[in-house]
Amino acid sequence: MSKSRRKTDKRQSTIFDLIKEYTAGEDLPTEGKARVIERLRASLRQAIKSSPLSRHQIAGEMSHLLNESITKEQIDSWTRESDETNKRPARHIPAEYLPAFCIVTRDNGPIEIMGEIAGAFVLPGPEALRAEIQRLDEQIKAAQARKRKRLMFLREIEGRARHGKG
Q: 0.85 cut: is pTM over it?
């Protein structure tokens, strides 16, 4: 008996094809397209909100990773919406601080925004993928447990109905 060869579908896209499609047809950058400070601030705020760490703890961990002092007040200034209305100079997180911020908060959202604007994709590393896979496995197990409970409940209801107990 001969082994059948698996035929590949020539129409199937590769990740490189998808990237080409994503970037194809984009016009040259329009004025202001790369100004993402409000999206970046919102992403920083969301990362902080999702983190179990306080702003003081985030500042401390960032200070350790960067080997320079980062304060809660600096983080506040990077995330504050109303600098102009309060007559404070607008502050932005320095780009060299973004990796430390993302590591500490375990949220790559700010770097993903920067990559998106530059036309790059930010993919998670192996540890992040393992953590996501673990989280998905846990969600699957929880869903399976809920399904089992509902099946047992259904069997019980159907059993009562067959026996004339309602």
A: no
